[in-house]
Amino acid sequence: MAFPSHHHEALRASVFKTLESFAETPVLDTVDRAIASTLAVVHTAIAEFAQAWNNQHLDPLRMLPPELHTSCLRWLQLHELIAASHVSRDWRAVALAEPTLWNSFDANAFKTSRSDDSDCAEALEAMFLRSRSAPFDFSWRWGPGMSREVRDILSHSQNVQRLQSLEIFGPPNHSPAFISTLIGQPMLQLRRLVVTGLGAPIQFPDVWNDITVPRLQFLGLGETIFPERLQAISSVTKLSLSAPLDCRYLFELFPRVENVLLQNVSTSNLLPRELGTSVTSYSLTSGSRQEDHSLSLLEQGRGWRLVPYMTIESTNVLRPLEWFTSRIDGGWRMQLHVPARLPSVSVTLEKESHGRLAFNMKWADFFTQMTVDLLPPFTANLTALVINEPAHTLPVVAAMTMPNLRTLGLTLGDYAAIEWILDIWLHPSRQPIFAPALREFMLTTTHATPSKATKLIQVVPVLFHLTGRLERLKITSYATSILRDADLSFAWNFCDSIRLTDFEKDLTFDLSASDSLVEGG
């Protein structure tokens, strides 16, 4: 326990102001030494009193097994940990004995409790010292830029070599030149680097390679200038990058990257001719410009293979369909998700064991293209379709030609969506949706009661034109388990089995036409 540093200065200033009008400098020095000596005595007395008080009143830390002491302190935030290290000698000994308590500095969390930038620099310096040689994590998300003191501490050569994670998120008054200099050297411990929002590009280090950054796994960079000649960094597996103008050699620089996110991609970017052999996720976004990547998909992406997860932005549904269906054989699955607030739709095209392609586009464009343009060449092998928001998606489904559709899923938010189907969609003049090969119907609701779900199940033969019996009905909702005792005999007229999944109780029940009940987990 100690007086705050500004109290020391206030005491000295007050005494000096009193003496400076008549005291000589040697006298002032003597007084200063006397004040420091007095403060040391006071601090020692306070520490001894605190220790005696803690011993007498059963300090909770002393009551716990020693192996739990450090675990308790790990629950504290940075400013709380600093305060705890001054509670008593025991607490201080525990806090200082474990370097990993001090090897993670988050400026945002620190600044929520303190406003003095000098305190931030002092805390950072203390944490580098107290964490000893442990790998260090540094994160700066706080609004104002770093002070000179913080920069000097962070850029100290010994501290740079200990950085394991370095995250700097804007604002523009962070100096890109400082960041470029900071990272422009070997960083043997570095595993994660994220630098975004600086308002100007940083320089990618030309000294980086498998020897100088051997542990680097995640790289997230905003606008970046890449040198003409770079050596491969094979340790990087995750990459998030504001796309440079020329991305053709991206996978030569990062040959083992698995997850790739290219941001701010426009039609002027030169994209890789082929995807890296290790890529499992590949996403293109354009930010606020709303670019159409579907042209790049057909032109620059002809050599791309379908990976487990791929996302683009598009204004055209036909081009992604053409690219996707040309890379698969047989049946595939489509999922349409219309958010509560239009005007967009998320489309996912998926082929089991091959991969999937997801894209977003304006709802009006999607509706026109899906209901007017010729889609049968692409939807002929569509075998599974999952939709939500029936007021917008059912008209699309009704207009599509799906001769091989075997599974249709409805994901509904509440009973109002079910009421819309019953009261608005199913009027006498409406023709049933033609799905001659349909064998499975899935209904998932998050808020509708089981009785409402049952009402929708009853009209399945009216909703769809079936040429054969359904093999299975799947109903997933909360409290669905109560339906196992309900009268579902109407369903046996058009289906062979029913699966009830109660996600509230995490239970699954299978019902068959013979009225046998099998409970699953």
Total strand segments: 23
- On the 0 to 100 scale, the average pLDDT is 84
Strand content: 15-25%
Tally of helical segments: 20
Q: Main sheet, how many strands, which sense, barrel?
A: 19 strands, mixed
- Structural class estimated from helices and strands: alpha/beta
Poorly predicted regions are none
Distance between the termini: 56 Å
Shape: extended
What Rg do the Cα atoms give?
33 Å
| Helix content bin | 25-40%
Describe this structure as you would to a colleague.
The strands form 3 sheets. This protein has a 19-stranded mixed beta sheet. Strands 5-7 form a two-stranded parallel sheet. A two-stranded parallel ribbon has the order 17-19. The mean pLDDT is about 85. It is built from 20 helices and 23 strands. It has a domain at about 5-55. The longest helix is centred in the first third of the chain and has 32 residues, at about 25-55. Strand 3, helix 11 and strand 4 form a beta-alpha-beta unit. The protein is of the alpha/beta class and about 525 residues long.
Describe the structure in brief.
Helices cover 34% and strands 22% of the residues.
What layout of secondary structure does this protein have?
Layout: H1 5-19, H2 25-56, H3 60-63, H4 66-73, H5 78-84, H6 89-97, E1 104-106, H7 107-111, H8 117-130, E2 136-140, H9 148-154, H10 157-160, E3 163-169, H11 176-183, E4 192-196, E5 202-203, E6 218-221, E7 224-225, E8 238-242, H12 250-253, E9 259-263, E10 281-284, H13 294-298, E11 309-313, H14 318-325, E12 332-337, E13 344-351, E14 355-362, H15 363-371, H16 376-379, E15 382-388, H17 390-399, E16 407-412, H18 415-425, E17 433-434, E18 440-445, H19 450-458, H20 460-463, E19 464-465, E20 472-477, E21 497-502, E22 507-512, E23 517-520
Parallel strand pairs: 1-2, 2-3, 3-4, 4-6, 5-7, 6-8, 8-9, 9-10, 10-11, 11-14, 12-15, 15-16, 16-18, 17-19, 18-20, 20-21
Antiparallel strand pairs: 12-13, 13-14, 21-22, 22-23
